[in-house]
Design goal:
Blueprint (H helix, E strand, L loop, with lengths): L1 H17 L27 H6 L3 E2 L10 E2 L24 H6 L3 E2 L10 E2 L3 H9 L16 H6 L3 E2 L10 E2 L8 E3 L4 E2 L3 E8 L13 E9 L2 E7 L24 E7 L3 E7 L5 E6 L4 E3 L2 E7 L4 E6 L13 E5 L16 E7 L5 E6 L5 E6 L3 E6 L4 E6 L4 H12 L13 E2 L7 H13 L6 E4 L20 H10 L3 E4 L5 E2 L8 H9 L22 E2 L6 H15 L6 E2 L5 E2 L8 H11 L6 E2 L15 H16 L1 H14 L4 E2 L1 H4 L13 E3 L3 E3 L9 E5 L5 E3 L14 E5 L7 E4 L2 E6 L5 H4 L4 E6 L6 E7 L7 H4 L3 E8 L2 E9 L8 E8 L7 E4 L2 E2 L5 E3 L4 E9 L4 E6 L1
Parallel strand pairs: 24-25, 24-31, 25-26, 26-29, 30-31, 39-41, 40-44
Antiparallel strand pairs: 1-2, 3-4, 5-6, 7-9, 8-9, 9-10, 10-11, 11-23, 12-13, 13-14, 15-16, 16-22, 17-19, 18-21, 19-20, 20-23, 21-22, 27-28, 32-33, 33-34, 34-38, 35-37, 36-38, 39-40, 41-42, 42-43, 43-49, 44-48, 45-46, 45-49, 47-48
Helix pairs in contact: 9-10, 11-12
């Protein structure tokens, strides 16, 4: 009887486990035309949509609802009519949805859990797999007749994003080799001629040439261009190695089968990094397209966009790239253009690819996996960087295009801005309340409202009367002032009243229309019509510098606006907790600036009251404490191309769990920041890769049982969880309200030991403001090494006189297993009252030693 009852219980449990998942959900595979509008009334937003328990997904096509009803995937197709979309083993919901199919776990074991939307779709998809389709009719208005007239295949589908009109595997398109590849001084040259007579967009160019150049052992260039007519190329000279006898880490192959294939292969692993069928190449006068297979779906990069995730979705996502000063909008380009991506291969090597093209362009990421590049002008000029680590890729990339600039030290302090101060009185009150709360504040901004009628190189002498004198006061208090200048000027001011335009007109520096003579005219912020300086014209640079210098004699500003993420958000109203958590996160942005738009309420950290100010002050003081470490990271970026902020996958590439993490990030290799991103949350889940980790606040080592796991970590409202990675030494400096003051304070070291009891680090220091101090050798640089229970500080460069007044005051060591009996510094015993040992393995030493002095501190038992 007991056995029977047990059997019945087990049957009930099994039934619960396999019963149909009938709850409605936001199907990633739902075609846009099947969406049922859940917010037909005006004013739809993500927040209002989610409050109705509906799905939110922006869509570019007019008439498609962004807010739509959830769908019960189990009711889409009756069980008897379901056709298996994942007949092979290993089916799961994620894999099913990635194929564009529906998932419904059912107790009917004869019905597939993963299935197509219809019989017609199944037939078509099995013949032409959706993951391999490349769009043959990207513009609106496709039909079977138009598609087939292009020599393409028509196969409709209800799956979102999948093209209905696509290229056949062996269609009448593309190019083939005219003759065998020819050896050149740097590599190979192939002449290509167009196949067939079908033209998709007209004005096809034939012949074209593909040059393959071996630049360095880790950098390859392949360029497709018109040999008979010069087309625009980005004027960036990326020089190849002068050593032509290097052994490259890549092979290239041309395979002239039914269509010409070009492959780039990593020698060591034989992984195919790039495989393109030139039979699918389109090269017409105003439309160029190339598709390539990539070795994995771990793709990062492309921009500048508001990406929904760090690792890209490969489900036919398209990113356009054309810089036009657009504020963040889903799937739209923002301020810069970065046609570069990185791929983590299946064996955890990494490579990167740059398309050096400045025309309007887009890239489509497809699930095969593949990438389709399209542009309306120029040439196809690709550079590949072989890594093999993510850091190596970025180092090689910046070696080619130019290293990042070395920022002034003060620019790493907290910065405050607002479009809409509207008067100097409001500006002064804002700055004063931050001072009263003792909130670190290095840089104050002026947006376009400081100008007279939004005219560059002017200021509003009525609403901002006394601005030059106020800027001097800020500078006397150790602060800096940054202004905005827009890249356009009105042409319609009365003659003789607006020198910037009149001088530019005299020099002939404006962007012209296609006739090459008449300035292009548009409408922007200033009154009247505007013209646009042509920054490719050397005279424009001279004009710009002259105007900036003349205006600096009026307003003694310290810098000109750059773009960054706006703490607390630019558009719409923030909330208390959203802004507070964002202030904590923003304290660890490389560029830490709070900024918002005109018409929105104030959101500076002094406007919300005492509690908010105290928590913001605490987070910013941690930033200021760590500025020497951050500044040193920028030095390594400037000199070697290292990343300053990096994803966990940069350091732990062989751990696949890190590849999709974008809710935590690193400063350099050593500091992990894990912010709270949800309102009301008082904890955060943190994934700890295989390493020694220490709590920043307590110095306590993370339990080994947490490693390679996602662990819930407390995060009360006044705390942003931070963790130091063992094996690294972080230089710090006691914080102050401005960097002018903090740079006078003593230095300290935080030494986090790895499992071998070792750590290393460095400190770069200069005057923090001069241009080219690195190139002139006017800096101080020291390397730290801890091993065999001994810390050594070795001065590598002593070229900055200002370091003579600075000193070490504190050394903290994390991860000591027991208290040492005696500690020596340069042969002398450190008194016991100058040392503190904590049972969690943290040792604190209070010392007094000049920064210029080389140190040897040993711990004996």
């Amino acid at each position: 009887m007991k056995a029977v009852r047990l059997l019945r219980v087990c049957s009930m449990v099994l039934a619960v486990l396999v019963q149909s998942v009938s709850s409605s959900s936001c199907l990633a595979s739902l075609a846009p035309q099947l969406r049922k509008d859940c917010h037909p009334d005006p004013g739809a937003s993500e927040a209002s949509c989610l409050s109705r328990n509906c799905c939110w997904s922006p869509w570019k096509t007019p008439g498609i609802p962004w807010c739509f009803e959830k769908v019960d995937s189990c009711s889409v197709v009756p069980e008897p009519q379901r056709i298996d979309c994942h007949p092979e083993s290993g089916a799961n919901e994620a894999a099913c949805v990635n194929r564009g199919c529906h998932w419904c776990a059912s107790e009917n074991t004869t019905a597939p859990f993963c299935f197509y939307n219809s019989k017609e779709e199944a037939t078509c998809s099995m013949k032409f797999p959706i993951q391999n389709r490349v769009d043959c009719h990207p513009q609106p208005g496709a039909s079977p007749e138009i598609c087939e007239a292009k020599g393409c295949v028509w196969c409709s589908t209800t799956i979102a994003n999948v093209p209905w009109c696509f290229y056949p595997a062996n269609g009448p398109h593309g190019y083939t080799m005219k003759d065998v590849p020819q050896k050149t001084a740097q590599g190979w040259r192939v002449t290509l001629i167009k196949c067939g007579t079908i033209s998709l967009f007209g004005n096809d160019i034939s012949p074209i040439v593909m040059d393959v150049e071996f630049h360095t052992k880790d950098r390859l260039r392949f360029k497709i261009y018109d040999p008979n007519n010069k087309r625009f190329e980005v004027p960036l000279n990326i020089e190849s190695s002068s050593n032509v006898s290097f052994e490259s880490n890549y092979d290239v192959e041309f395979i002239n089968d039914t269509a010409l294939q070009f492959r780039v292969i990593r020698k060591k692993t034989r992984t195919v990094l790039w495989e393109t069928t030139l039979g699918g190449l389109i090269f017409s006068n105003q439309y160029i397209q190339l598709m390539t297979s990539v070795p994995s779906t771990s793709i990062y990069g492309f921009g500048e966009h508001e990406h929904p995730s760090f690792k890209h979705d490969m489900n036919y996502v398209r990113y356009g790239m054309f810089s036009r000063d657009q504020s963040p909008v889903a799937l739209s380009n923002l301020y810069g253009v970065h046609p570069f991506y990185m791929c983590i291969e299946k064996d955890f090597n990494a490579h990167g690819v740059l398309l050096l093209n400045s025309n309007a362009q887009d890239v489509t990421l497809s699930p095969s996996p593949s990438l389709t590049f399209r542009t309306i002008g120029g040439i196809l000029d690709f550079y590949m960087f072989l890594g093999p680590t993510p850091e190596n890729v970025i180092q090689q990339y910046t070696e080619a295009i130019g290293r990042p600039f070395m920022p002034p030290y003060w620019s790493l302090g907290f910065q405050l801005s607002r479009w809409g101060y509207n008067s100097i009185d409001v500006l002064e009150k804002t700055v004063e309340r931050l001072r009263q709360y003792d909130i670190p504040h290095d840089v104050q901004y002026g947006d376009i409202d400081y100008m007279e009628r939004q005219l560059d190189f002017t200021y509003d002498k009525a609403n901002f009367a006394g601005l030059p004198e106020y800027i001097k006061k800020l500078k006397n208090d150790g602060m800096h002032y940054v202004i905005i200048l827009d890249p356009f000027l009105t042409k319609d001011e009365p003659q003789g009243t607006y020198r910037p335009y009149e001088l530019g007109q005299k020099l002939g520096i404006w962007v012209n229309n296609s006739d090459g003579i008449t300035p292009a005219v548009g409408k922007a912020w200033p009154p009247g019509d505007s013209v646009y300086p042509d920054y490719t014209n050397p005279k424009t640079a001279e004009w710009w510098i002259q105007m900036c210098m003349e205006f600096k004699n009026i307003l003694d500003y310290d810098g000109i606006w750059i773009i960054g993420a706006d703490i607390c958000g630019f558009n719409e109203e923030t909330t208390y907790e959203l802004c507070l958590r964002w202030m904590q996160l923003g304290a660890f942005y490389p560029f830490s600036r709070n900024h918002n738009a005109i018409g929105n309420k104030e959101q500076d950290p002094g406007v919300f009251g005492e509690e908010f100010a105290a928590i913001s002050r605490s987070a910013l003081r941690i930033r200021y404490l760590l500025l020497p470490y951050l500044y040193t990271l920028f030095y390594h970026s400037h000199v070697s191309g290292n990343t300053v902020v990096r994803g966990l996958m940069h350091e732990f590439t062989s751990d696949p769990q890190t590849h999709g993490i974008d809710r935590a990030f690193l400063w350099g290799p050593a500091l992990m920041i894990t912010p709270v991103l949800e309102e009301g949350a008082r904890s955060v889940y943190v994934y700890f890769p295989e390493a020694s980790w220490f709590d920043f606040y307590t110095g306590e080592q993370v339990s080994p049982s947490w490693l390679k796991k996602s662990v819930e970590v407390p995060a009360p409202l006044d705390v942003i969880p931070l963790f130091i990675r063992g094996g690294y030494i972080l230089p710090t400096q006691f914080p102050a309200r401005t960097t002018v003051l903090s740079r006078l304070n003593p230095f300290s070291l935080i030494i986090a030991l790895d499992e071998h009891g070792e750590a290393s680090g460095s400190l770069f220091w200069d005057d923090g403001d001069s241009i080219d101090s690195v190139e002139r050798g006017e800096y101080f640089y020291v390397e730290y090494k801890f091993s065999n229970r001994t810390l050594k500080a070795t001065v590598i460069k002593n070229g900055y006189n200002g370091a003579t007044t600075l000193a070490y005051s504190t050394i903290q060591i994390l991860g000591f297993t027991s208290k040492p009996n005696v500690i020596f510094m340069n042969g002398k015993t450190i008194p016991s009252n100058r040392m503190q040992y904590n049972s969690n393995g943290k040792i604190t030493l209070w010392i007094s030693a000049p920064l210029l002095q080389e140190l040897t501190i040993s711990f004996e038992y």
